[in-house]
C-alpha cells in the first residue's frame, strides 16, 4: 500500500509513519491516514484526533475581599488559560471547616477560577493566611498562591471639625489599614446617619442641625471580627 497523511483535510506527509518532532498547541486537530493499494484498486482511511494539553501561564493569583456586608470573607483564586482548565483548591483546615458557600464557578473541579465564602464566626485573627493550590495535567508539580488578611492596627478614631465658613460641622471617623479594609458608618440621633464606606467616613451636619448632649456613634466592622468596634462623639 501507499500511505498519505492529512491534517484537517490537507495533505501533510506521504509514508506510513508521520512524526511530529516538536509538539505544539497548534498541532491539535484531526489526522487521517489514507492507505491505497493500486494493484487491488482498494483504499482505506483511518482518522485520529490529537489534543495537546498546555498549562496556563505563570501561577494562580489569590485575593481576598469582604462579603455579605463585611460579615464574611470572599477568597478568590484565578489561573486563566491553559487546556484543559486547571484544578484550583483552597487548602487548610480553616477553609474546609468554615466555608459555607461555593460560587457557581466551582460547579466542577476543572475551572479557571474559584471563590469561597468564610463567615466571620469561622475566622480567627491569628489564623489569616490562606493558600490556593493549582494543578494541571501538563505540569509535573502543582503551583500555589497565598493571601493574608489582618485587622487594622489600633482602634477607630473619631473627631469633629468645622469648615472655614462655619456653615458645616464635620464628624470624621476612620479605621485605617487592614486587609481587606474595614467598613465604617455613622449612627446619630434624629436619623442623622451615614451609610457604610471603607476605611473612613464623614458625617456632614449643617449648623443648627447638630444634636447636643446625644452621642454620635461611629461603627467599624472588619470580616475577621464578629463584633463591630466603635467610637463616639457627644457635642
Automatic annotation (TrEMBL):
It is found in: Membrane. It comes from the Eukaryota. Keywords: Disulfide bond, Glycoprotein, Immunoglobulin domain, Membrane. Its main location: membrane. It is a single-pass type I membrane protein. This is Ig-like domain-containing protein. Residues 1-49, 60-136, 137-234 form the Ig-like domain.
